[in-house]
């Protein structure tokens, strides 16, 4: 692992470096989900918008598989981070809101 | 994957990982763990990550207490080079109804008898521990400082890495498809990656435990049920203990990472294998938690997901062997608290399998209890 890898941030929400990603892969991780569980890459406020492809590219290089064959991690809602207070103040079903 | 083993463990969640590790640590030479996905992909990695001694039934209290003893030294024992994020800042369990408060007094009495130092608190005392708490309508609370949190992913991985170092064969993406018996004894396990001959088989398949049990002709009285959960962005430290209420059906804890994990129980949730997520949960969760901890109004939800509870008729796990199927053992039906019990269950199951006297008497947690009508009662679950 090079010193340079420790200086390259892959997931900026969770401060995960390329060295962290490579260590997880070196210890046997072969999927995006495993890397996420081990390093927290993709678990921050942006939910992997920045790092997802970078991690996938790293895995693809290591596994010698094309990018589209790297098993993606699960996408989970909400699409954008939402304040709990805003959610609490909504008092209608989304369907009802649409009808208004 | 090797063609034969002394034991095959089904399930790469924390329970299977802990059992495999303990078998190897106790001297078993060849252990294969089969996991159809990867580590902590079922209930473990989806759980609320809490650990508590404050239960209302004797078995759960004894098991949880021994488990927390083990959590205190776990990372060290397993030689794990990352943090399992074990935190002991307590559980604060709120009472809002007279019935609940009466039950809590009984719980604390039982907990004291079993060596748990829980306390009954007034709403004012509870507020001293959680200044952000809205105590309106609260009659009191119980608190135990030894309760807390650990990271389910890292805890599971720590067990698996230690098992590997002891020679364990940890096989991910290996699905068990059939189990062959011979003259009532476990003989061979068929998997998507080949067969393994083994005289011992351990069912630690979490939500799929009943499917595995069927393969050896055992019917489990369990059902699975979705529980939804969410996590926020990390924020400055404001919440030491897990805050929990059974009557409101909520739990909420700040993790060492700074994010806040919370869930609510839905009594109308149908049984089944659905692990989807709903908009209704987000709204209801937000409205309940913002009443209880108003400071959370400005904190953002970043992710919601769900996991499965595997419920037994008495909310206690089913542990040990089953008469008539030699070599078959099970650690199933944890009813939503498998993560916190895993360290102790790993040790107890390995003791049973190796023919030793389990260090805690769990003979009452066998499958036969339901036929005998010896149901336990656990009043304290979300």
From TrEMBL, chain A:
GO function terms (MF aspect): oxidoreductase activity
Residue ranges of domain SoxA A3 in the record: 10-88
Domain of life from the UniProt record: Bacteria
Xref: Pfam families: SO_alpha_A3
Keyword entries, A-Z: Oxidoreductase
Protein name: (2Fe-2S)-binding protein
Taxonomic lineage from the root: Bacteria, Bacillati, Bacillota, Candidatus Fermentithermobacillia, Candidatus Fermentithermobacillales
TrEMBL record, chain B:
Key words of the record: Membrane, Oxidoreductase, Transmembrane, Transmembrane helix
Pfam families xrefs: DAO
GO molecular function terms attached to this record: oxidoreductase activity
Transmembrane segments annotated in the record for this chain: 7-24
Any GO CC annotation of this UniProt entry: cytoplasm
Domain FAD dependent oxidoreductase, chain residue ranges per copy: 6-352
Signal peptide: none
Protein name as catalogued: FAD-binding oxidoreductase
Organism: Candidatus Fermentithermobacillus carboniphilus
């Amino acid at each position: 692992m090079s010193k340079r890898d420790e200086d390259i941030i892959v997931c900026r929400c969770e401060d995960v470096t390329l060295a962290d990603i490579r260590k997880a892969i070196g210890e046997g991780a072969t999927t995006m989900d495993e890397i996420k569980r081990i390093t927290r890459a993709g678990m921050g406020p942006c939910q992997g918008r920045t790092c997802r492809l970078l991690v996938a590219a790293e895995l693809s290089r290591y596994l010698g598989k094309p990018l589209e064959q790297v098993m993606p991690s699960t996408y989970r809602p909400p699409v954008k981070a939402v304040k709990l207070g805003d959610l609490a103040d909504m008092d209608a079903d989304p369907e009802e809101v649409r009808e208004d | 994957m090797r063609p034969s083993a002394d034991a095959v463990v089904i399930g790469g969640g924390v329970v299977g990982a802990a059992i495999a590790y303990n078998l190897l640590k106790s001297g078993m030479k060849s252990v294969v763990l089969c996991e159809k996905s990867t580590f902590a992909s079922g209930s473990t990695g989806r759980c609320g990550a809490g650990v508590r001694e404050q239960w209302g039934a004797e078995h759960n209290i004894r098991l949880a207490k021994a488990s927390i003893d083990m959590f205190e030294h776990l990372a060290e024992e397993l030689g794990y080079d990352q943090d399992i994020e074990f935190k002991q800042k307590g559980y604060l369990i709120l009472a809002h109804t007279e019935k609940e408060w009466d039950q809590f007094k009984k719980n604390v009495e039982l907990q004291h008898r079993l060596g748990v130092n829980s306390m009954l608190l007034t709403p004012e005392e509870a507020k001293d521990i959680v200044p952000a708490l809205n105590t309106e309508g609260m009659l009191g609370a119980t608190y135990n400082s030894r309760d807390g949190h650990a990271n389910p992913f890292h805890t599971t991985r720590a067990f698996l890495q230690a098992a590997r170092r002891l020679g364990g064969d940890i096989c991910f993406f290996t699905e068990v498809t059939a189990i062959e018996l011979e003259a009532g004894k476990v003989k061979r396990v068929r998997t998507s990656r080949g067969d393994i001959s083994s005289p011992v088989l351990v069912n630690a398949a979490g939500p799929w435990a009943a499917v595995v049990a069927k393969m050896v002709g055992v019917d489990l009285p369990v059902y699975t049920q979705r529980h939804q959960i969410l996590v926020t962005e990390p924020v400055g430290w404001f919440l030491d203990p897990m805050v929990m209420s059974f009557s409101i059906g909520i739990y909420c804890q700040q993790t060492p990472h700074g994010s806040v994990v919370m869930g609510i129980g839905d009594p109308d949730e149908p049984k089944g294998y659905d692990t989807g997520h709903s908009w209704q949960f987000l709204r209801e969760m937000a409205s309940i938690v913002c009443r209880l901890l108003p400071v959370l109004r400005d904190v953002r939800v970043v992710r919601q997901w769900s996991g499965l509870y595997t419920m037994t008729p008495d909310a206690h796990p089913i542990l040990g062997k089953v008469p008539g199927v030699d070599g078959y053992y099970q650690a199933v039906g944890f009813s939503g608290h498998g993560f916190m019990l895993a360290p102790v269950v790993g040790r107890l199951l390995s003791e049973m399998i190796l023919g030793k006297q389990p260090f805690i008497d769990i003979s009452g947690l066998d499958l036969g209890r339901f036929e005998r009508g010896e149901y336990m009662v656990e009043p304290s679950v979300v």
